[in-house]
Amino acid sequence: MIMYIVGITGGIGSGKTAATRYLQAKGISVVDADLAARIVVEPGQPALQAIADHFGTDLLQADGTLDRAALRSRIFADSAQRHWLESLLHPLIEEEIQAQLSASSSPYTLLSSPLLLETRQHQWVDRVLVIDLPEALQLERSMARDNNSEAQIRSIMATQASRQQRLESADDSVDNSRDLPHLYQQLDRLHERYLQLAAHHPTGEKNDP
Question: Best label site of 20, 27, 41, 61, fewest CB within 10 Å?
Fold first, then answer.
């Protein structure tokens, strides 16, 4: 079965999770790239051992799991280390995402990824939905949510596509600068649109409405 896949993306703190949870409650399967990234570094996975060998076992917590905050701090301070980690993890994450996409049976499937446009993942989707808000608000919400410093949030933002780049690549966008009801109202309209597109999706071809 050839499914219709909507890629959903946005910068850190944009509200991707709020959007995907809302559509998931409507019966839509969500494949989350961040969750896939966690799965491939679980204890017992080869990638976790490779990370410990490369960066040191101090990045492992007492229960043997990865200290993601410590790793994030390490790699965003050193681009060479970040590229090493990406070369290790991206192929494994792609494999996990593809497996989850293949298992989906909902009318259409959401692929939620902060790096949808920066990786090959955008090639797997039929449509791109961007959760948009001004960068100042993105920064404010990220700092409040994650209790991270402004410098760390800005370093993460610097590795992602800019707001302008995301919007230029979007087939659809929603404004998340206001409250959740405003976000949900926009998502309701898009959900109906995606159901229609999926119903008329040509087997084995990308939809180009």
Answer: 27
Q: Is pLDDT above 70 for 202?
A: yes
Task: Give the integer Cα–Cα distance in Å for 3 and 8.
Answer: 16
CA distance 67 to 69: 6
Contact 6, 125 (CB under 8 A): yes
Q: Which of 115, 144, 116 is nearest to 128 (CA)?
A: 116
Which of 116, 94, 153, 109 has its CA nearest to residue 9?
Answer: 116
Is residue 18 annotated as involved in ligand binding? yes
Q: What is the pLDDT of residue 26?
A: 97
Q: Report whether 26 belongs to an annotated binding site.
A: no
d(CA 11, CA 161): 8
* 13 in a labelled binding site: yes
Mean predicted lDDT score pLDDT of the chain: 91
* 106 annotated ligand binder: no
Furthest CA-CA distance within the chain: 52
Measure the CA–CA gap between 51 and 69, rounded to whole angstroms: 14
Backbone phi, psi, residue 116, to 5°:
-55, -45
| Nearest-angstrom CA–CA distance, 53 and 179 | 45
204 in a labelled binding site: no
Find residue 131's DSSP bridge partners. 174
Domain layout of the chain by residue ranges: 1-28+108-209, 36-105
Q: Residue 36 is encoded by which pair of tokens? A: 């896939």
